[in-house]
Amino acid sequence: MEVVIVPDAKAGGELIAGAMAELLRHKPTALLGVATGSTPLPIYQALAAQVSSGAVEVSRARIAQLDEYVGLPAEHPESYRSVLRREVLEPLGIGMDAFMGPDGTAEDVRGACEAYDRALAEAGGVDLQLLGIGTDGHIGFNEPCSSLASRTRIKTLTEQTRIDNARFFDGDIGQVPHHVITQGIGTILEARHLVLLATGEGKADAVAATVEGPVAAVCPASALQLHPHATVVVDEGAASKLKFADYFRHTFANKPDWQGI
Ligand code: F6R
After folding, report:
1. pTM
2. Is 143 a catalytic residue?
3. Catalytic-residue membership of 103
4. Helical (H) or strand (E) element with 229
5. pLDDT surpassing 90 at residue 100
């Protein structure tokens, strides 16, 4: 996997938005897998700026959701569908007809999970999947000890993840759902390019385990080591526990310009 250490979150957002723009120039109908949470916001802002400036055209791009709360109505402001509409689709000018995600309100949750996995495959697969990382190493909401071969399914959030996400629910953990539908690790690994962004010292342990630890279900993000094209972009805080940080800096500084991430 490639590790890129950037000065700050804004630089990380610009680097990743640049890679998305490059993909869209080659494949205007690309299926972009998007994550929610605080970390990817600089990516979405940088991509929206590129669209406004005319540097890239997204009218034919398609967007796929990574995960969704179970039981929150789609129109709830914190359902991930609503969040993505607000933070990604509207700023980019992409309509809901180009959006796909699992149905977190389905009575048949298992059927909804299987249907979403099928829909992703029928859409030709995700071209570039953005990922954040939990303080416990989760990607999507594959919490520690998730099967590395897992498919889209229902998961129970850890208390730590619910505490972390309470900030989106007026600080009230009681409002944070216990369950989510998440793309499985096996599903995520089928995307053609995985790009994980992590910022802040609070993510440093999880990043070190992901990049330099063994591939192990206890750190779900370590599954990225199995992917032929995975890029981990970290700011100085999130990189602060990497033993190979100097090597990663040296490698990126000496990359041929044409190579991209
Ligand atoms: C959200 C998701 C999660 C978050 C992770 C980090 O769609 O898949 O894995 O990426 O919980 O969240 P933030 O970025 O808020 O620290």
Report:
1. 0.98
2. yes
3. no
4. none
5. yes
